[in-house]
Structure formats: structure tokens, C-alpha cells
Amino acid sequence: MNIKPLSDRVVVKPLEEVEVKKGSIIIPDTAKEKPMQGEIVEAGPGKFEDGKAVPMSVKKGDKVLYGKYSGTEVTVDDVEYLIMRESDIFAIIS
Question: 12, 43, 61, 92: which is deepest, by most CB within 10 A?
């Protein structure tokens, strides 16, 4: 992957949601909710506030929770990613 985010942005690969079926009801992909968990594949250097560098709280490899409508979807090499600001991330999953 050749994406290097700037400032306080991160590139997140959404985690695939585990599908659990009950009965014989099939839900089409368009009706399913997007996953709100992902893994950070790249992180920017951080941002500057009042002339001082503020480092990122997250790093490459962290699994995170983010908002349902957070980020911008991009496709690189047929793989979908989200680019979002660090402030759109709610928590790190350990």
C-alpha cells in the first residue's frame, strides 16, 4: 500500500463482520450495517497545536472502534480502506 496519511489522519482497514444466521432469512449486503471496528494500517505523524507537535495516541496495528459514518472510503489495489482523523476514533480494543 502506498498511502501515507498527513497530520493527525489514519488509514483504517475495516474488520470483516462475523455473520451469524438464524433460520433461513437472508439479509442482502446493502441492508447490513457497516462494521465499526478496524485495524490501523498507517498513521500520520500527528498535528501541531500552538507551535508544538502533538504525537498520535494510536499506532499501526491497533484495533480501534470508530463512528458509524466516520472517515472517507478509498479503494487501493482492490482493498477498501477508511481515512479518518484521530479524533474520529473512540477507543483502542485490547
Answer: 12
